[in-house]
Design a protein that fits this description.
The protein has 382 residues and is of the alpha/beta class. The chain folds into two domains: 197 residues, Rossmann fold (3-Layer(aba) Sandwich); 175 residues, Rossmann fold (3-Layer(aba) Sandwich). The protein is built from 15 helices and 13 strands. A seven-stranded parallel β-sheet has the order 3-2-1-4-5-6-7, with helices on both faces. Strands 10-9-8-11-12-13 form a six-stranded parallel β-sheet, with helices on both faces.
């Protein structure tokens, strides 16, 4: 089978990681696979090197950018159409909103070179919570139109599927839920062995509760709630791996609350898998998530997760069993759960052990590859 994947950019994050893991798994099955990805904007870390590590052929498309740009978007669509005519793939599989739009438009205008299968994965969505109501209505209309040009839509969690149905974006018969799959043993292999060294870097003592977080410091992640929560947990250190436009606000709030010395901003790092071992708990305060990969990895490393019940987070964190969930913006409950974990090492170990087992059962690469293959074959046999 010949497959082309298109994604807006291979930046550090769950969408890019899952696409590369999927492509590598498909190549292992003998398929001809190419990943096409756009430009990574300044300030975001790259995952392009992982394509080489996994042996995934990768083509950079400079015109494919996250920002709206009619000229660049037309160039990106033209490039993808040319690839369709040259490579004649059986399946075009797009990922993320911008690549989903340009890729599926390219398929529409490819004529006889339109692949037999056009698939799009929603790794989350920007259809609510990201923009003003007018722009959200426009994006929904675009996605509804594109759904007619799509043979099958994949949602990475039940919650994402439910959002697509609630917003009347995709008909139910066109949606398949396929959870992420990762080589979690490889991703967090160094976590346990790195605990002492990483905590020493932080200056953390044995009695400190080290709270981890990773991602982009942007509005949808509500990073100020991370600081507000930590302020209510005495004896804790908040470690932020990532960067973004709200970093100055995070620093200012930490200073105003008198906890600047308890907040560590690492910026983007290459060895996040090792850092999970340094954390006693992992905290997410997001307003929306598709399926939070950092929570999957943290649990796989045996670190309990305290998170807001946003989007697909419930598909990862089992409340009371591998961590705790709270309402979006409820920093009091989040802080209370962290104080509970601080005072009970046995509870942390129990929740972490449950999470480590369940993540490997729930988010295996083999399952993701097999379920995606089944979608492709169902389309191609019509």
């Amino acid at each position: 089978m010949r497959i082309i994947h298109v994604i807006a950019r291979l930046n550090v994050g769950g969408a890019a990681l899952s696409v590369l893991e999927l492509a590598a798994g498909q190549r292992a099955l003998g398929h001809d696979v190419l990943v096409v990805a756009g430009t990574i904007p300044p300030g975001e870390a790259s995952m392009e090197g992982l394509a080489g590590e996994l042996g995934v052929p990768y083509l950079r498309a400079p015109a494919l950018t996250r920002e709206l740009s009619p000229r660049r978007d037309l160039h990106a669509a033209a490039l993808i159409r040319r690839l369709l005519r040259e490579r004649r793939p059986d399946v075009l599989h797009t990922h993320t909103s911008k690549a989903g739009a340009t890729g599926r438009i390219a398929a529409l205008v490819a004529g006889k070179a339109r692949p037999a299968g056009v698939v799009h994965t929603f790794h989350g969505h920007v259809l609510s919570g990201y923009f003003d109501s007018r722009r959200e209505r426009v994006f929904r209309l675009v996605e509804r139109a594109l759904a007619h040009a799509t043979d099958q839509v994949i949602a990475v969690s039940d919650q994402v599927r439910n959002d697509l149905l609630r917003l009347h974006v995709v008909p139910r018969e066109k949606i398949t839920v396929i959870s992420y799959g990762f080589d979690l043993d490889r991703r967090v292999a160094g976590a346990a062995a790195s605990r002492s060294a990483k905590r020493a870097v932080l200056g953390a003592g044995d009695d400190d509760l080290v709270i981890g977080w990773a991602g982009r410091l942007s509005k949808i992640k509500r990073p100020l709630d991370l600081v507000r929560t930590t302020a209510q947990v005495p004896g804790s250190l908040l470690v932020l791996a990532g960067d973004g436009e709200l970093r100055p606000d995070v620093e200012a709030l930490a200073s105003s609350l008198g906890i600047a010395e308890r907040v560590r901003l690492l910026g983007y790092i290459d060895d996040l898998g090792d850092w999970y071992g340094a954390f006693d708990a992992f905290l997410l305060t997001s307003a929306n998530e598709g399926a939070p990969v950092v929570a999957i990895e943290a649990l796989a490393a045996g670190t309990p997760v305290v998170a807001t019940d946003a989007g697909g987070t419930r598909s990862v964190v089992d409340d009371g069993e591998s961590g705790y969930l709270a309402a979006i913006g409820d920093v009091d409950t989040l802080a209370g759960r962290l104080r509970e974990l601080h005072g009970d090492a046995a509870l942390r170990r129990r929740l972490g052990a449950t999470g480590a087992t369940r993540m490997r059962e729930r988010f295996s690469t083999t399952r993701m590859v097999d379920e995606t293959e089944a979608v492709y074959l169902r389309i191609l046999r019509r």
